[in-house]
Amino acid sequence: MAQRPEPEPIAVRHPPGAARGRYWRLPNSAAALARMGPWLTGRDRTLARRHRLPRRRQAFLLATALLRYALAEHLGTGRRALPLQRRSQRRPRIRAMRWAEQLSLSVAHTDQWVLAGLLPGGRRLGLDLEAATRSISPAVARRLPWPQGALQPSLLQGWTLVEAALKADGRGIPALAQLRLVGADGGGWRFRCGDWLLRGAAIPGLSGHPRPVAAIAIADQHFPKVASTP
Ligand SMILES: CC(C)(COP(=O)(O)OP(=O)(O)OC[C@H]1O[C@@H](n2cnc3c(N)ncnc32)[C@H](O)[C@@H]1OP(=O)(O)O)[C@@H](O)C(=O)NCCC(=O)NCCS
Protein backbone atom coordinates (compact mmCIF):
# COMPACT_ATOMS: atom_id res chain seq x y z
CA MET A 1 0.00 0.00 0.00
CA ALA A 2 1.37 3.45 -0.94
CA GLN A 3 2.34 5.63 2.04
CA ARG A 4 0.42 8.88 2.41
CA PRO A 5 2.64 11.80 1.34
CA GLU A 6 1.69 13.80 4.46
CA PRO A 7 3.75 14.61 7.59
CA GLU A 8 2.82 11.90 10.11
CA PRO A 9 3.29 12.77 13.79
CA ILE A 10 5.40 10.15 15.58
CA ALA A 11 4.83 9.32 19.23
CA VAL A 12 8.21 9.11 20.93
CA ARG A 13 8.69 7.79 24.43
CA HIS A 14 11.39 10.09 25.72
CA PRO A 15 14.35 8.75 27.63
CA PRO A 16 13.67 9.05 31.39
CA GLY A 17 14.33 12.54 32.67
CA ALA A 18 14.63 14.09 29.21
CA ALA A 19 12.75 17.10 27.86
CA ARG A 20 9.87 16.46 25.44
CA GLY A 21 9.99 17.27 21.76
CA ARG A 22 7.83 16.78 18.67
CA TYR A 23 8.52 14.41 15.78
CA TRP A 24 7.20 13.71 12.28
CA ARG A 25 8.04 11.44 9.37
CA LEU A 26 7.41 11.45 5.64
CA PRO A 27 7.88 8.80 2.97
CA ASN A 28 10.99 9.46 0.89
CA SER A 29 8.91 9.59 -2.31
CA ALA A 30 8.25 11.81 -5.33
CA ALA A 31 4.63 12.18 -4.16
CA ALA A 32 5.78 13.52 -0.77
CA LEU A 33 8.17 15.93 -2.49
CA ALA A 34 5.34 17.24 -4.68
CA ARG A 35 3.13 17.63 -1.57
CA MET A 36 5.86 19.40 0.44
CA GLY A 37 7.22 21.54 -2.43
CA PRO A 38 5.60 24.78 -1.18
CA TRP A 39 7.76 24.57 1.99
CA LEU A 40 10.99 24.75 -0.04
CA THR A 41 12.93 27.77 -1.22
CA GLY A 42 15.10 28.18 -4.32
CA ARG A 43 18.15 28.08 -2.07
CA ASP A 44 17.07 24.72 -0.63
CA ARG A 45 16.91 23.33 -4.17
CA THR A 46 20.34 24.75 -4.98
CA LEU A 47 21.83 23.22 -1.79
CA ALA A 48 20.26 19.85 -2.62
CA ARG A 49 22.31 19.67 -5.84
CA ARG A 50 25.42 18.80 -3.81
CA HIS A 51 23.92 15.30 -3.42
CA ARG A 52 24.51 13.29 -6.58
CA LEU A 53 22.13 10.39 -5.87
CA PRO A 54 18.48 11.28 -6.65
CA ARG A 55 17.11 9.50 -3.52
CA ARG A 56 19.61 11.31 -1.30
CA ARG A 57 18.78 14.63 -2.95
CA GLN A 58 15.07 13.95 -2.43
CA ALA A 59 15.72 13.01 1.23
CA PHE A 60 17.59 16.27 1.80
CA LEU A 61 14.71 18.31 0.33
CA LEU A 62 12.06 16.38 2.26
CA ALA A 63 14.00 16.73 5.52
CA THR A 64 14.27 20.48 4.92
CA ALA A 65 10.55 20.79 4.14
CA LEU A 66 9.63 18.63 7.13
CA LEU A 67 11.76 20.75 9.47
CA ARG A 68 10.02 23.91 8.21
CA TYR A 69 6.66 22.21 8.70
CA ALA A 70 7.67 21.18 12.24
CA LEU A 71 8.86 24.71 13.09
CA ALA A 72 5.68 26.28 11.72
CA GLU A 73 3.54 23.79 13.71
CA HIS A 74 5.49 24.41 16.88
CA LEU A 75 5.79 28.18 16.57
CA GLY A 76 2.37 28.75 15.01
CA THR A 77 3.94 30.87 12.26
CA GLY A 78 2.25 29.43 9.16
CA ARG A 79 4.04 28.64 5.94
CA ARG A 80 6.52 31.41 5.49
CA ALA A 81 10.19 30.87 4.86
CA LEU A 82 11.68 30.14 8.26
CA PRO A 83 15.41 30.88 8.49
CA LEU A 84 16.56 27.29 8.52
CA GLN A 85 20.26 26.67 8.11
CA ARG A 86 21.31 23.35 6.52
CA ARG A 87 25.02 22.60 6.87
CA SER A 88 27.00 19.70 5.45
CA GLN A 89 27.87 17.10 8.15
CA ARG A 90 26.28 19.25 10.87
CA ARG A 91 22.93 19.46 12.59
CA PRO A 92 20.30 21.74 11.04
CA ARG A 93 19.57 24.90 13.00
CA ILE A 94 17.55 28.10 12.95
CA ARG A 95 19.75 30.88 11.60
CA ALA A 96 18.33 33.86 13.48
CA MET A 97 16.91 32.97 16.89
CA ARG A 98 14.26 35.62 17.38
CA TRP A 99 12.14 33.37 19.55
CA ALA A 100 12.48 33.19 23.31
CA GLU A 101 12.91 29.42 23.42
CA GLN A 102 15.89 27.55 22.07
CA LEU A 103 15.06 24.72 19.74
CA SER A 104 17.31 21.84 18.77
CA LEU A 105 16.60 20.17 15.41
CA SER A 106 17.54 16.77 14.04
CA VAL A 107 16.82 14.73 10.92
CA ALA A 108 17.54 11.22 9.68
CA HIS A 109 16.67 9.47 6.44
CA THR A 110 16.70 6.17 4.62
CA ASP A 111 15.73 5.34 1.03
CA GLN A 112 12.14 4.91 2.29
CA TRP A 113 11.61 7.46 5.09
CA VAL A 114 12.56 10.86 6.42
CA LEU A 115 12.31 11.56 10.15
CA ALA A 116 12.59 15.05 11.68
CA GLY A 117 12.08 16.47 15.13
CA LEU A 118 12.55 19.46 17.34
CA LEU A 119 13.31 19.73 21.02
CA PRO A 120 12.63 22.88 23.06
CA GLY A 121 14.50 23.79 26.22
CA GLY A 122 18.14 24.20 25.22
CA ARG A 123 19.12 20.51 25.23
CA ARG A 124 20.45 18.84 22.10
CA LEU A 125 18.52 16.33 20.03
CA GLY A 126 19.73 13.45 17.88
CA LEU A 127 17.55 11.14 15.78
CA ASP A 128 18.55 8.13 13.73
CA LEU A 129 16.67 5.83 11.39
CA GLU A 130 17.70 2.69 9.49
CA ALA A 131 15.86 0.07 7.41
CA ALA A 132 15.58 -3.27 9.28
CA THR A 133 17.15 -4.97 6.23
CA ARG A 134 20.39 -3.09 6.71
CA SER A 135 23.26 -5.27 7.86
CA ILE A 136 25.83 -4.26 10.45
CA SER A 137 29.36 -5.41 9.70
CA PRO A 138 31.41 -7.18 12.43
CA ALA A 139 33.79 -4.18 12.38
CA VAL A 140 30.93 -1.81 13.22
CA ALA A 141 29.43 -4.27 15.76
CA ARG A 142 32.76 -4.26 17.63
CA ARG A 143 32.51 -0.48 18.01
CA LEU A 144 29.14 -0.54 19.78
CA PRO A 145 29.54 0.39 23.47
CA TRP A 146 27.54 -2.50 25.03
CA PRO A 147 29.79 -4.98 26.87
CA GLN A 148 29.46 -8.71 26.07
CA GLY A 149 26.85 -10.43 28.21
CA ALA A 150 25.19 -7.18 29.34
CA LEU A 151 21.53 -6.46 28.55
CA GLN A 152 21.79 -5.05 25.06
CA PRO A 153 19.63 -4.01 22.11
CA SER A 154 19.82 -5.74 18.72
CA LEU A 155 22.86 -4.78 16.62
CA LEU A 156 20.85 -2.51 14.35
CA GLN A 157 18.93 -0.89 17.22
CA GLY A 158 22.25 -0.41 19.01
CA TRP A 159 23.70 1.29 15.94
CA THR A 160 20.74 3.68 15.70
CA LEU A 161 21.18 4.54 19.40
CA VAL A 162 24.86 5.25 18.78
CA GLU A 163 24.20 7.42 15.72
CA ALA A 164 21.45 9.33 17.53
CA ALA A 165 23.86 9.93 20.42
CA LEU A 166 26.61 11.10 18.05
CA LYS A 167 24.18 13.53 16.44
CA ALA A 168 23.05 14.84 19.82
CA ASP A 169 26.73 15.30 20.69
CA GLY A 170 27.06 17.18 17.39
CA ARG A 171 30.41 15.80 16.26
CA GLY A 172 29.07 12.75 14.43
CA ILE A 173 31.25 9.70 13.74
CA PRO A 174 34.52 11.38 14.84
CA ALA A 175 33.17 11.29 18.44
CA LEU A 176 32.51 7.52 18.39
CA ALA A 177 35.79 6.68 20.13
CA GLN A 178 34.68 8.78 23.12
CA LEU A 179 31.18 7.31 23.46
CA ARG A 180 30.78 5.24 26.64
CA LEU A 181 27.74 3.40 27.95
CA VAL A 182 27.26 4.45 31.57
CA GLY A 183 23.94 2.82 32.45
CA ALA A 184 20.41 1.78 31.61
CA ASP A 185 17.13 2.95 33.12
CA GLY A 186 13.44 2.41 32.34
CA GLY A 187 13.98 1.20 28.78
CA GLY A 188 16.57 3.87 27.99
CA TRP A 189 20.35 4.04 27.94
CA ARG A 190 22.75 6.56 29.37
CA PHE A 191 25.96 7.44 27.57
CA ARG A 192 28.79 9.77 28.18
CA CYS A 193 30.61 11.41 25.29
CA GLY A 194 33.27 13.94 26.17
CA ASP A 195 31.56 16.51 28.38
CA TRP A 196 28.02 15.40 27.52
CA LEU A 197 25.64 13.07 29.31
CA LEU A 198 23.34 11.56 26.71
CA ARG A 199 20.08 9.70 27.18
CA GLY A 200 18.98 7.39 24.39
CA ALA A 201 15.92 5.26 23.70
CA ALA A 202 14.53 3.17 20.87
CA ILE A 203 11.56 4.56 18.91
CA PRO A 204 9.53 1.35 18.58
CA GLY A 205 6.42 0.57 16.55
CA LEU A 206 7.14 2.41 13.29
CA SER A 207 5.26 0.77 10.41
CA GLY A 208 6.74 0.22 6.95
CA HIS A 209 8.38 -2.33 4.61
CA PRO A 210 11.20 -2.79 5.33
CA ARG A 211 10.46 -1.97 8.97
CA PRO A 212 12.18 1.24 10.09
CA VAL A 213 14.40 0.99 13.17
CA ALA A 214 14.84 4.32 14.93
CA ALA A 215 16.28 5.92 18.04
CA ILE A 216 16.34 9.23 19.86
CA ALA A 217 19.11 10.68 22.00
CA ILE A 218 19.13 13.85 24.05
CA ALA A 219 22.29 15.55 25.26
CA ASP A 220 20.96 16.27 28.70
CA GLN A 221 23.51 18.25 30.59
CA HIS A 222 27.11 19.24 30.72
CA PHE A 223 29.11 17.37 33.28
CA PRO A 224 29.99 19.96 35.94
CA LYS A 225 33.55 21.15 35.53
CA VAL A 226 35.68 19.99 38.46
CA ALA A 227 37.72 22.84 39.88
CA SER A 228 41.40 22.08 39.43
CA THR A 229 43.41 21.81 42.62
CA PRO A 230 46.41 24.12 42.85
C1 LIG B 1 25.56 12.00 11.50
C2 LIG B 1 26.13 10.62 11.31
C3 LIG B 1 26.43 9.98 12.65
C4 LIG B 1 25.05 9.72 10.68
O1 LIG B 1 24.74 10.01 9.39
P1 LIG B 1 24.05 8.99 8.40
O2 LIG B 1 23.65 7.72 9.07
O3 LIG B 1 24.97 8.85 7.26
O4 LIG B 1 22.76 9.74 7.88
P2 LIG B 1 21.33 10.02 8.59
O5 LIG B 1 20.30 9.95 7.55
O6 LIG B 1 21.13 9.20 9.80
O7 LIG B 1 21.48 11.53 9.08
C5 LIG B 1 21.86 12.51 8.20
C6 LIG B 1 21.58 13.85 8.87
O8 LIG B 1 22.31 13.94 10.07
C7 LIG B 1 22.58 15.33 10.30
N1 LIG B 1 23.98 15.42 10.71
C8 LIG B 1 25.07 15.21 9.95
N2 LIG B 1 26.17 15.37 10.69
C9 LIG B 1 25.75 15.70 11.95
C10 LIG B 1 26.42 16.02 13.16
N3 LIG B 1 27.75 16.01 13.23
N4 LIG B 1 25.68 16.31 14.25
C11 LIG B 1 24.33 16.33 14.21
N5 LIG B 1 23.63 16.03 13.07
C12 LIG B 1 24.35 15.74 11.95
C13 LIG B 1 22.29 16.10 9.03
O9 LIG B 1 21.13 16.84 9.26
C14 LIG B 1 22.04 14.99 8.02
O10 LIG B 1 21.01 15.27 7.14
P3 LIG B 1 21.23 16.21 5.84
O11 LIG B 1 22.49 15.75 5.19
O12 LIG B 1 20.00 15.99 5.03
O13 LIG B 1 21.37 17.58 6.39
C15 LIG B 1 27.38 10.87 10.50
O14 LIG B 1 28.32 11.44 11.38
C16 LIG B 1 28.15 9.82 9.86
O15 LIG B 1 29.29 10.06 9.68
N6 LIG B 1 27.70 8.66 9.50
C17 LIG B 1 28.58 7.66 8.90
C18 LIG B 1 27.82 6.42 8.77
C19 LIG B 1 28.80 5.26 8.76
O16 LIG B 1 29.98 5.37 8.89
N7 LIG B 1 28.25 4.11 8.61
C20 LIG B 1 29.04 2.93 8.58
C21 LIG B 1 28.60 2.01 9.65
S1 LIG B 1 27.58 0.72 9.08
- N-to-C SSE string, H for helix and E for strand: EEHHHEEEEEHHEEEE
- In spatial order, strands of the major sheet run 7-11-10-9-8
Q: Biggest β-sheet, characterized?
A: 5 strands, antiparallel
User: Overall pLDDT, averaged?
Assistant: 90
Q: Count every beta strand, where a strand is a DSSP E run of 2 or more residues.
A: 11
Silhouette: globular
Describe the structure.
- The protein is of the alpha+beta class.
- The protein has one domain (8-222): Ribosomal Protein L22, Chain A.
- Helices cover 24% and strands 29% of the residues.
- It contains five helices and eleven strands.
- The strands form three sheets. A five-stranded antiparallel sheet has the order 7-11-10-9-8.
- A hairpin with an 8-residue loop joins strand 10 (196-203) and strand 11 (212-222).
- Helix 1 (30-36) runs parallel beside helix 3 (54-75).
- The N and C termini lie far apart (68 Å).
- The mean pLDDT is 90.
- Residues 60, 63, 86, 89-92, 107-109, 128, 136, 140, 163, 166-167, 170-173 line the site of coenzyme A.
- Coenzyme A binds at residues 60, 63, 86, 89-92, 107-109, 128, 136, 140, 163, 166-167, 170-173.
List keywords for this structure.
230 residues; 5-stranded antiparallel β-sheet; alpha+beta; binds coenzyme A; Ribosomal Protein L22, Chain A; 4-stranded antiparallel β-sheet
